[in-house]
Amino acid sequence: MSPVAPPRLSLPELAQQLRVDAVRCAAAAGSGHPTSSMSAAELAAVLLAHHLRYGVARPDHPANDVFLLSKGHASPLLYAMLRAVGAISEEELLTFRQPGSRLEGHPTPRLPWVPVATGSLGQGLPIGVGLALTGASLDHLPYRVWVMCGDSELSEGSMWEAFAHAGHAGLDRLTAIIDVNRLGQRGPTRLEWDTGAYARRIGAFGWDVIEIDGHDIDEVDAAYRAAVEVTGAPTAILARTVKGRGAPAIEDRNGYHGKPVPHPDEVVAHLGGVRDLRVPLIPPDSDAVPYRFPTGEAELPTWQVGEKVATRDAFGDALAALGTVRGDLVVLDGEVSDSTRTGRFQEAHPERFFEFYIAEQQMVAAAVGMQVRGWRPYVATFAAFLTRAHDFVRMASISRADLRVAGSHAGVSIGPDGPSQMGLEDLAMFRALHGSTVLHPCDANQTAALVSATLDVPGISYLRTMRGATPVIYPPGEVFPLGGSRVLRASSEDRVTLVGTGVTVHEALAAADRLAADGIAARVIDLYSLKPVDAATLREAARQTVAVVTVEDHRPEGGLGDAVLDALAATGPVPRVHKLAVRDLPASADPAGQRRAAGIDADAIVAAAREVAAG
Ligand SMILES: Cc1ncc(C[n+]2csc(CCOP(=O)(O)OP(=O)(O)O)c2C)c(N)n1
Question: Is the pTM of this model over 0.85?
């Protein structure tokens, strides 16, 4: 008997299945975004059945295509797609948004088929740019990156950073599928169904653009076929669709965003009922092996005690040396590589250095994409300018990304450039991230050691560097464990503890010398690791001295002083803690004048220590 050929997969039926499953899981959850999912059902069905190369059993396969749901709120569609390819079961689909379910409200990598978290709009496409760059320039593999975007999402500036970068870089394995369903959350989008306006704008960034009816299977298929042609340009498919398509009572009607569809059983019946179609995906090329850069031997740079060196210089030199040893280290710049000193890495390893111009969101997003594929990114710009990429760093922590970030030009100590260039909130920002590591070295050898240590730290690690030179106080080769600190002055007579980090370690040492001359013994702690923090050393100092003075070139909220207080508050003892920090708005002055004006120099420390030591 000859085997019976399986029935040909009907794409309209598959699209209806995706709609039905989106409606069902949102109905079961009592929340979610089914209407945003229903508009894109044909776009998803054709992609799965004819174009996506992916091994469901091997989500880590190096040759897998990438699918990113930039409009992450349409998670019911994604979960319906995962059921259709056999990744999740019917039972799991219906756990959507329940406690403990992997099917969270917006997608996260708790599901192995989800490379990064989405849901903060404007992030999927820039991360897709990073993945397409990785394929072309690092992995040297021909996987394609498909990113499904919303039309209202196109208002985000970060999307246009992505269009600009991908167009310029000619990332022709990147396709943006834009679901132009006319409506956003609260009403019509700015351009509604004017796909021509989108096409002109995106085309001006060097993309191939295709306008289609997003519910016409043949048009969708033809657009995907055109997208995979090698043209030297990325492709944007502008698909005109109807929000809520398949539920006639609410199709193209405002007021149904982010809600289960009314009368879901009737809608499911109207759509033809529950189906159990399975899509056999095209498998990836099984022989694909990602490229690996050759490595060599190199020593970390060292400096002699007493030399004056900026920690940003030590960072750049250390990074260049580590790049020789670690072929997976990649560095990303936001047009300040001469200032952050990542230019030294670029000179040594130009093929692993990526310039993003003044587009910090795209820079961080690209790094998130690169680490998905196992590369080790270090992102660097001024600490001040990381604030504008902070939502990307925040989402990176939800993505469980391993990401290293360096912020240079910390604090008022940058001097005359003034407050627009000063990183004064960065420690708070990075300390508040889930699972982060926050480091602020005070000298060159410590910097080199900590740069090296961050390469193997999971999660988000932040290294804060300084513009101006500080004296080298640690001999070469010293070890600085993460979560550690250094006690630089201590005696059984200590009356007060001075805790500094970065430049304020040097101010604290100068203050301790002057206090000693006055007969007040001061313990000095270099708290180079602000998270995790060396609570044991702080507690011991709190027990053995009458008060603690913390001093930081940072705002009083969320930085060193708060890290010390948090550590002591957990277990006590909690002595009097006097926080010296930048409380006023700085202006232009030389670095020493800035620290004087901010009240974080040795004079201010001496005055505070005298006061607290007097009890
Ligand atoms: C950065 C950001 N701002 C606001 C939101 C809230 N939000 C969620 S969905 C949405 C509308 C999205 O519309 P569109 O991109 O057109 O997708 P659709 O749901 O219409 O398919 C908004 C404003 C968000 N998730 N992220």
Answer: yes
